Amino acid sequence: MVNERATIGLAEQIAAEARALGFAACGFASAAEDPVRSDRLEQWLGDKHHGSMEWMEARQRHRRSPQGLWPEAKSVIALGMSYAPALDPMALENAGDRARISVYAQGRDYHDVVKKRLKALARWLVAKEPDAQVKVFVDTAPVMEKPLGEAAGIGWQGKHTNLVSPDHGSWLFLGAIYTTLDLTPTEPHRDQCGSCRACLDACPTDAFPAPYRLDARRCISYLTIEHKGPIAEEFREALGNRIYGCDDCLAVCPWNKFAAEAHAAREFLPRAELTAPRLAELLALDDAGFRALLSGSPIKRIGRDRFVRNCLYAAGNSGDAGLVEPVRALADDPDPAVADAAHWALKKITSTL
User: Are the C-beta atoms of 318 and 349 separated by less than 8 Å?
Assistant: First the structure.
């Protein structure tokens, strides 16, 4: 058994190594189940706020706690890597002929970048503590990264349910290392949202039934990324020109004034072709063109059909007569959701001419 002093010393060394690898935040939490976290998860699922993300419910038992997924785990190393944008995420709000892509998806796929750094930290830890066992996770397993990040003191879950750091704002990619080492937990972070409700008021689709509660079924990120088939007409205008994700609730958070542009990982710098892409060019993409354009991007996983469907909703909201022909060309698309979106967009554009 490692004594407390040695354990604290090791935690400090881990945090230092994490910083050297480009992580902006590092903290430690127990791997045991927390009843409050578990109850919140159960309520969220019970309210069906997860929409069609069936894996959330199917693996609820594993998601409830780190030990539910890996019984031997004793500690969680919670980590955050900054992707704070250099440009205003809202700058294209009124640019009808352009598409808006969420800041996090304009660079390299964060799954690959963050996991590479997590593995490097895990290798370093095992080399230092040969008896330690570790598992690394970044948004691809039943892990509650945000509540664990709060428990580990790297931030708190804001009213928009995302993690907020007093030093790095809301722009953090989260990862976790589960380990059999018994590390001293960091003091959990206290909520510092106060009376602010900027994120709640900014949501275009009223996806927050209450502070700290998100109904994914109304969230633009969910609708443009996870939702299959046609998007309900009640949300189509609210999409505006957002074709992949939404940054609104993050962009208005006052704590982001403390977030500096991310320099730790150059992979997160936006690709020029994704910062302000023309809708006309995106509408012309076939499957091969889509794959070529989005190679190495997290956007690639939604496929050409869902991507073009989103672009058609944006075209419909643009009021741009120049998009009529590119939209019309998709009216008989083999994918029913694309064809439906094309007919809606045509009707919407021509009604404004």
Answer: yes
For the record, the structure tokens of 183 come out as 């590390």
Instruction: Report which residue type is found at 169.
Output: G
333 is catalytic: no
Interior CA angle at 233 toward 346 and 88, to 5°?
Answer: 85
Q: pLDDT tens digits for 196-243?
A: 999 999 999 999 999 999 999 999 999 999 999 999 999 999 999 999
C-alpha distances out from residue 65 to 47, 116, 134, 139, 284, Å:
20, 24, 16, 15, 45
Name the residue type at position 41: L
Q: pLDDT per residue over 153-174, tens digit each?
A: 999 999 999 999 988 899 999 9
Within 76-172, residue ranges assigned H as helices are 110-128, 145-151
N residues, the chain: 353
Asked if 159 and 193 count as a contact pair (C-beta separation under 8 A), the reply is yes
Q: Amino acid identity of 270?
A: P
CA distance 306 to 244: 10
Do residues 107 and 269 make contact, with C-beta atoms less than 8 angstroms apart? yes
Nearest to 53 by CA among 290, 221, 266, 272: 221
Specify whether the CB–CB gap between 89 and 103 falls below 8 A.
yes
**Alpha-carbon distance 147 to 161, whole Å?**
9
Which one of 139, 333, 335, 340 is the catalytic residue? 139
Torsion angle (degrees, nearest 10) of CA 87, 93, 98, 104: 50
CA distance 187 to 156: 12
CA dist 86 and 83 (Å) reads 9
The Cα 175–Cα 78 span in angstroms is 6
Residue with tokens 């995302």, as numbered in its chain: 162
